[in-house]
Amino acid sequence: MFNIVIVGVGGQGTLLASKLLGDIGLSLGYDVRVSEVHGMSQRGGSVITYVRLSNDAPLYSALVEYGEADIILAFESLEALRALPYLKKGGKLIVNTQEIPPMPVIVGAAEYPKNILEKLKESADVYATNATEIAVECGTAKAANVVLLGMLSKHLPFTYEAWIDAIKRNVKPQFVDINILAFNKGREA
Question: What is the dihedral of CA 117, 146, 132, 49, to 10 degrees?
Answer without folding.
Answer: -50
